[in-house]
UniProtKB/TrEMBL annotation:
Domain Integral membrane bound transporter: start-end pairs: 409-531
Name the UniProt record assigns to this protein: Integral membrane bound transporter domain-containing protein
UniProt keyword annotations, A-Z: Cell membrane, Membrane, Transmembrane, Transmembrane helix
Annotated compartments: Cell membrane
InterPro entries per record: Memb_transporter_dom
Organism: Pedosphaera parvula (strain Ellin514)
Length: 737
């Protein structure tokens, strides 16, 4: 019995830390229950509404105190019910249906404004239910009947959401901190040697995981901050300590990645790759084990995490000994220092993790309240429902464009009585994004997934399957849809297309006209969305990217400026290095997201896309180099070399002039200022009194460590200047070393 319980607990813990699997299992069970029950009762038509409501509500990853989660579920259920009723009541009038569609689209903009986490889902879900209601016979009797089905589907979804909490109660603050450790685990896993090749894009998985970690850290910062404002407790202090430890741990992982880059493909380093792989795998598993301990706060989990932390120390020591036998050049020495810095932080993690366990004995019952956040305080919603103080003009334009376009689609559907033409409006709602690049990517994924799904679903017309097999296949397709929804969108659409065909087949015979109608509606909706994004109030990313990139460059300037106290340049600074790091990483994240949208825009409108990609990449490398410098300084490294204050000042000036040149569109005055500052920086670095002739050796001095990172920072800045690639300013190219 104890073995079964341990296996069940282990399975639940693994599912808890894999939200895609948890979401897919939850929504699939919620989808399948009404399907089987309605078919058993001989009422297959009602299964569609109940299953769709239960699936969509179960897809939500609810966070926060239990009353907050119930409130979010209740609000989304009410929105679905109201949308369904509105669709039914306006089904018999083209004008009423068109106006109602506009209202639903505008309300979707409100949901997006109120919550970035739940708003988009609520907007799409409400549109789906409205269009399904619009496809039904009109009238109050039908509307009341469908309201009952929506309520039953919402009840099933609520049971599925709550049922998981019974097995693993999730304190919002604990879970939030645990998510940061899971994000760190994924970051470490992306560093495995198998992912390091000569491909220029080899670091893209690492960069994506780095951005995900930054998002998780920011979210946790908000949640703990909101909790501490309303309630002070020892547990919150210990969770805050674990949040700080994951920040310090991540800084050292970033420094390790920077140290690995110049030597990962060296022939003499090849024999250490298996050990390096073991170290990275163990570090990834250990950080995930820390996350499990934070959630379940049991002594046995803490004991397992402590063993893994010690194993990391031992493996790091083995790797260090093998690396020391390779050579004593500067790159090897830098790598050894990075490993030592990671090893030093592991005991701190163990001690901080132990405090969270000691102050939180495991409960044997389902808790009725969560101690970290007050369920009656608006602060308990701060991490998840956070409307902006002002309306975003981009969101306003997007909502207006969405309303006009979906109203046109509904008028087309109702006016010409297009068979299942509601898919036109729904495709527009899903595909149309605020910018053209994202719209094109989403349209391509949706059309590609629909086409491949239709081709495979067409084979079902030739096979007569019993009802229980159709239900089983629909459940499998539902799982695939939920699992890939946030991983690969086109794969999710492939699965949901087959799911819808099977679901319809259970209500009656399905012929080729059904799949053809869905395919044509998807094609038309995607085409309308693309045309609207291109011509109707277009929001071009090329106009935004220079400002975002300039802000990222200035964030790096502020980052190195925040380290002035450690470098002995200033007695105090406006912000701490950790806060400056956070802002720099966020600025890089915003620039990278903008770049991704920029690359999706028509090539004829963006002649310098490669330059934009190079500048964003180099600026992120500057941030990573500065993080490595911050790790050395945080561990006590200092430099007494004369002229360091002048170098820092010139780096700041050069970064500022570089940002000004980017956002000004490379004006002559900005280029002249950048040229002057870069020359002064190179002159100061060349005349610095640093003995660079000696090898760093097995134990590089703190001063050597600092100067190495400063030199790398200057080199990355020079690379950024070269990446500007200005035909009228070739003199800049001659300045780079």
């Amino acid at each position: 019995m104890s073995k079964s319980r341990n296996f069940a607990n282990s399975l639940i813990e693994k599912i808890t830390l894999r939200p895609d699997v948890s979401r897919a299992l939850r929504s699939t069970v919620a989808f399948t229950i009404p399907l089987i029950v309605c078919h058993w009762l001989g009422r297959p038509q009602e299964a569609v509404f109940m299953a769709m409501v239960a699936q969509n509500l179960s897809l939500q990853d609810l966070r926060g105190a239990y009353p907050v989660r119930f409130s979010i579920l209740a609000v989304m259920a009410l929105v679905a019910a109201g949308s369904t009723l509105l669709g039914v009541l306006t089904a018999n009038s083209t004008l009423s249906a068109t106006l109602a569609m506009g209202a639903i689209a505008l309300l979707g903009g409100c949901w997006r404004h109120l919550s970035a986490d739940y708003g988009p889902s609520a907007a799409i879900f409400s549109t789906l239910m409205f269009l399904l209601g619009l496809s039904q016979p009109g009238g109050w009797p039908v509307g009341i009947h469908l309201l009952g089905l929506v309520a039953l589907g919402a009840a099933i979804a609520t049971v599925m959401q709550v049922g998981f909490w019974l097995f693993r109660p999730q304190h919002p603050s604990r879970y939030a901190v645990a998510e940061t450790w899971v994000a760190l685990s994924d970051l470490i896993a992306s560093m495995q040697p198998s992912a390091k090749t000569n491909d220029p894009l080899r670091n893209e998985p690492f960069a994506a995981r780095e951005r995900e970690l930054r998002v998780s850290l920011d979210r946790t910062f908000l949640i703990l901050g909101a909790a501490e404002k309303h309630l002070q407790s020892p547990l919150l202090k210990h969770l805050e300590a674990m949040r700080r430890e994951v920040v310090h741990f991540a800084m050292r992982i970033l420094a390790l990645n920077t140290s690995l880059e110049p030597i990962i493909n060296r022939p003499d380093f090849a024999r250490t790759l298996p050990v390096l792989d073991s170290v990275l795998k163990t570090l990834s598993e250990t950080t995930r084990s820390v996350a499990v301990t934070l959630i379940v706060y049991r002594q046995e989990n803490f004991a397992a995490s402590r063993v893994r932390l010690r194993r990391c120390q031992h493996l790091i020591r083995v790797l260090d000994e093998q690396i020391a036998a390779i050579s004593t050049d500067s790159d090897i020495s830098q790598l050894r220092v990075s490993l030592e810095q990671i090893a030093r932080v592991l005991p701190r993690v163990s001690a901080a993790l132990g405090e969270t366990v000691d102050h939180s004995p495991a409960r044997l019952r389902f808790p009725s309240a969560l101690p970290e956040l007050s369920s009656r305080s608006i602060h308990s919603l701060a991490g998840w429902i956070n409307p902006a103080t002002q309306l975003d003009p981009v969101l306003l334009r997007h909502s207006a464009r969405m309303a006009v376009l979906t109203m046109f689609a509904v008028a087309l559907y109702k006016g010409f009585a297009i068979h299942r033409g509601y898919w036109i409006a729904f495709t527009i709602m899903v595909v149309l994004q605020p910018d053209y690049g994202s719209t094109r990517q989403r349209a391509g994924a949706r059309i590609g997934g629909t086409v491949t799904g239709v081709i495979l679903a067409s084979l079902l017309f030739w096979i007569q399957l019993p009802l229980f097999l159709l239900d089983g296949m629909a459940a499998l397709m539902s799982f695939g849809f939920a699992y890939f929804l946030r991983r690969k969108y086109w794969v999710a659409i492939f699965f949901v297309t087959i799911m819808i065909v099977i679901l319809t087949d259970t209500t009656g015979p399905v012929h080729a006209d059904f799949t053809i109608a869905r395919l044509l509606s998807t094609l038309l909706g995607g085409a309308l969305a693309l045309v609207a994004a291109l011509l109707f109030w277009p929001d071009w990313e090329r106009e935004k990217f220079p400002a975002l990139l300039a802000a990222a460059v200035r964030a790096n300037r502020n980052y190195i400026d925040a380290m002035s106290v450690w470098l002995g340049v200033a007695e105090s600074t406006k912000t701490t290095p950790l806060m400056a790091k956070r802002r720099a990483e966020n600025a890089n994240r915003f620039a990278a997201a903008s770049l991704e949208r920029l690359l999706g825009e028509p090539a004829r409108l963006n002649e310098n896309r490669e330059r934009a990609a190079a500048l964003a990449t180099y600026n992120q490398r500057v941030t990573r180099t500065l993080t490595t410098l911050a790790v050395h300084l945080e561990d006590g490294a200092r430099s007494n070399a004369p002229g360091i204050s002048e170098i820092i000042r010139q780096i700041n000036n050069t970064l500022e002039s570089l940002a000004h040149a980017i956002e000004s569109g490379l004006q002559d005055s900005a280029i002249a200022e950048l040229t002057s500052n870069l020359r002064q920086l190179e002159s100061v670095v060349a005349n610095a009194n640093v003995d660079a002739s000696k090898e760093l050796g097995l134990t590089p001095s703190p001063e050597k460590l600092i100067w190495t990172q400063i030199a790398k920072t200057v080199a990355e800045i020079q690379a950024m200047v070269l990446a500007l690639d200005m035909p009228n300013h070739q003199q800049l190219a001659s300045l780079a070393i």
